[in-house]
Amino acid sequence: MTAAQTLAGQRILVTGGAGTIGSAIVDQLAAAGAAEIVVLDNLVRGRRANLAEAASALGGKLRLVEGDINDAALVHELTARKDVVFHLAALRITQCAEQPRLALESLVDGTFTVLEAAAAAGVKKVVASSSASVYGLAETFPTDERHHPYNNDTFYGAAKTFNEGMLRSFHAMYGLDYVALRYFNVYGPRMDVHGLYTEVLIRWMERIARGEAPLIFGDGAQTMDFVHVHDIARANLLAARSPVTDKVYNIATATETSLAELASSLLAAMESADSADSALVPEHGPERAVNGVTRRLADISAAARDLGWKPEITLGDGLRGLVSWWRENREP
Ligand SMILES: NC(=O)c1ccc[n+]([C@@H]2O[C@H](COP(=O)([O-])OP(=O)(O)OC[C@H]3O[C@@H](n4cnc5c(N)ncnc54)[C@H](O)[C@@H]3O)[C@@H](O)[C@H]2O)c1
């Protein structure tokens, strides 16, 4: 246990802070009164625009440094005199499968450098982004944090599992305090709408806007546990403030939603925003052999008990917000 701390007046480093989740954390840190926020992001996926709101709220207290977590000298320089490090920089699971060596350098070596610098600088807490991918297809549902990681067969999940091990070892070797958060299926504003690795919700919104039905690969029975980016950012801030250390927590909603239900909910969210009825019904395409995980459902009682965290945004509200954000931000 460490002492509970306020984030007001704290100096903070956010790696990957120009991305979807990182920028939501920066917004909440601004509202919490952080004294200084440095974002380190190489902008392979993150965008300056994601930090525009925080920049106008924070002025000179926010600095975006365009650089890589593998640049050890830069990481050490930016970590010195920081109180808290939020470590989010990583590649998508799909890119890790296509470029495993790059993934090794980014997720594993890069994380080592971030932890080495945090230990050397004596930061009070590292809050690290892990993933439900560490479970692979779980054997028990709802899945709690004690579930083993041996069903994972993705490089991304392997790297996240190793990162959790690295965090534990840095805690044991150097007393570095940390909390790792295993996010389940993340969605919300600032999801990537431009890149190669956009997600199913973005592709479906594009189809629906063209008057085409959302396309589900397979029977749509596969389930996920969706959690909104704002709730994830709240979990990060609570983890930074809380006295707990050397722990991992599931961050999800403990609600199972099938792909077919997700497609119907998205259609409803887009129709309610249009106030028009649509006759679209989801279509099915051939199964794709990319994702062997057919079910996700988290036990989130540990985060509720230790961090005082509970999700606040329902899937319906979250999807309506995502649709409005997407309509305002998509390229014509
Ligand atoms: N989105 C999800 O569904 C999900 C689920 C579980 C875990 N996570 C984890 O949460 C974290 C944040 O994810 P996100 O959804 O915001 O993704 P994101 O791609 O929007 O953000 C990641 C950021 O890291 C930056 N980055 C990547 N490699 C870097 C490097 N070598 N040096 C510096 N910056 C680098 C990218 O430019 C991007 O801004 C990641 O660690 C991710 O693995 C995400």
Question: Top keywords for this entry?
Answer:
332 residues; two-stranded parallel ribbon; Lipid_A_modif_metabolic_enz; Epimerase_deHydtase; globular; NAD(P)-bd_dom_sf; 41% helix; 7-stranded parallel sheet; NAD-dependent epimerase/dehydratase family protein
- Count the beta strands: 13
| Strand order within the widest beta sheet | 3-2-1-4-5-6-11
What compounds are bound to the protein? nicotinamide-adenine-dinucleotide
H-E order: EHEHEHEHHEHEEHEEEHEEHEHH
Percentage beta strand? 15-25%
Largest sheet: 7 strands, parallel
Specify the CATH class of the domain at 11-187 and 227-252: Alpha Beta
Average predicted confidence as pLDDT: 94
Regions with pLDDT < 50 over 5+ consecutive residues?
Answer: none
Q: Percent of residues in helical segments?
A: 40-55%
The outline comes out as: globular
Q: What name does the CATH topology of the domain at 11-187 and 227-252 carry?
A: Rossmann fold
CATH architecture of the domain at 11-187 and 227-252: 3-Layer(aba) Sandwich
What is the distance, rounded to the nearest whole angstrom, between the alpha carbons of the first and last residues? 51 Å
Number of helices: 11
Structure in words:
With 332 residues, this protein is of the alpha/beta class. It has a domain at 11-187 and 227-252: 3-Layer(aba) Sandwich (Rossmann fold). It contains eleven helices and 13 strands. It has helices at 20-31, 52-58, 72-79, 93-98, 100-121, 155-174, 200-209, 229-241, 259-274, 301-307, 315-329, and strands at residues 11-15, 36-41, 62-66, 84-87, 125-131, 178-183, 185-187, 215-217, 223-224, 226-228, 247-251, 257-258, 283-285. The strands form four sheets. A seven-stranded parallel β-sheet has the order 3-2-1-4-5-6-11, sandwiched between helices. Strands 7-10 form a two-stranded parallel ribbon. A two-stranded parallel ribbon has the order 8-13. α1 links the parallel β1 and β2 (36-41). The termini are far apart.
